[in-house]
Amino acid sequence: MHRFFLEKNFSKELQIVGADARHIIRVLRMQTGDVVQLVLDDGIICEAKITEIRDDTVKVNCLNVLAEPHDAKFSVILAQGLAKGDKMDFVVQKSVELGVDGIIPLALEHSVVQLDEQRADKKKERWQKIAISAAKQAKRDKVPFVTNIKNLNDVLKDKYDLVLMAYEGETQISLKSVLQNNVAKSILLIVGPEGGFSNNEVELAVNAGAKTVSLGRRILRSETAGIVALSCIFYEKDSI
User: How far apart are the C-alpha atoms of 13 and 206, rounded to whole Å?
Assistant: First the structure.
């Protein structure tokens, strides 16, 4: 069943307009009587039957409220070093499917990608659209946010129960060992760019309380490392 995010509070009768309405009418070619799932601003998720389609407006009637949550009971934010080409698109899509609550694109010392303000704004807009699409497909209970591009120092100012840095230079502490029996409710995962972290960045993160962790014996690409680490986090904390 198709899921849509509606910026309205729950009501028995609702209207879907804009891009979602056009998608329902022109792409999905849904008809009156068809049923969709709606995620509303007040956190309510319901099944709703289409009662009328007119121009670019879809009217629905809510049938029942769904009680089963699809999201984890803890929060994971991915701070991902900027990657080349469409690799960031891939990271955003797959991390949203896995369950992140937010994605922070990181500009780091060894980042190959350099974006001016105009290009950065366009990239953020694109990544947010990808997050919305992935959240719909994965039947998420909310749309994860994508922030503006930030530097590591700014990211480390926010407070989390656990801050993890996936670091290829770490040989003693595994991600699994840190996650076992960990009760953290908010986790920040930091992943470097193609060029890896600089020594200064590792020192900065450790001094701010981050734990450097190994993802195994092999060196992973930047766009692979985040997905592997997220998979481990959600598996170990039993949300999948």
Answer: 52
